Amino acid sequence: MSRMKSSLVIGASRGIGRQIALTLSSNGYKVGVASKTVQSTEKLPGSIHSVVDEIVKSGGEAVPIQCNVRKEEDIEKAVQQCINVFGGLDLAVYNAGAIMWKKVIDTPLKNFDLMQEVNVRGAYTMLQCVLPHFLQKNSGRIILVSPPIYNRFFKGKTPYSVGKVGMTVLVHGLANELKGTGVSISALWPAVTVKSFVTEKMQVPDEMMRSPELFADAVLGIAEEKTDGVTLIDEDYLRTKGVTDFSKYNCVPDSEPPRIMPKKFPSLLVEEEDVDLSSKL
């Protein structure tokens, strides 16, 4: 009898991360629910325990994992706990994020440092922790929640973009290193604004958003196939899998939310892509 698949979702106490955990569980995954939040409050609703309770009540298997992504030992313990409790790990999703959408001159260094530590450094730490296990068993899927690289994304939020785009660079670069190993990595980003704790704080109108189920369904699809070093858009990815009606994901049933992502993105490949200069450096 084959072992049930297992996953680690970092940044899973609310919003998109919570839904990713729920969707994975309802589709046969054991889930490590990792986040810094261990107690739900009015100011910060949702916790690792509340999400695990939801999963268990629905018949799934999950473990709550307290994890401050600014501490590498917390991420290392989260990965190891999943391996110990579940007997292995098949999927790692990095959804933790720090957001401050302001210009360079309006972003203090302490806020810049926070975003880099939570976003790109946290993702890098997770990679360092899961790769030995994945490479040893010649299989594993990694998904980072990060955007395509294009100039418009930077406008008005350059400090934030530094870390998020850095995560995407990790995806493209690491994919080159993982060729032939059986381990794959992808980036995923929403086409339309997704309803979350952040959007509620920003008071984004419901008619402009889709539910987090859409993004979670895309995560599930990627988890079930091999995708190497690509930056995917949730809705566009699901269209390639035959999904044509997205109305069930709309927060307001009769209102089609506007797309926030471009329809096409610039290629990062160059004519000399396969020229290897490493031996000459």
Keywords for this structure?
7 strands, globular, Rossmann fold, NAD(P)-bd_dom_sf, 7-stranded parallel sheet, 281 residues, alpha/beta
In short:
This is Hydroxysteroid dehydrogenase-like protein 2. With 281 residues, the chain is of the alpha/beta class.
Describe the structure.
The protein has 281 residues and is an alpha/beta fold. The chain has one domain (6-280): Rossmann fold, CATH 3.40.50.720. Helix content is 41%, strand content 13%. Strands 3-2-1-4-5-6-7 form a seven-stranded parallel beta sheet, with helices on both faces. α2 (48-57) links the parallel β2 (30-35) and β3 (62-66). α1 (15-26) packs across α8 and α8 (212-223) crosses α9 (234-240). The longest helix has 29 residues, at 109-137. It starts with 5 loop residues before the first strand and ends in a 41-residue tail after the last helix.
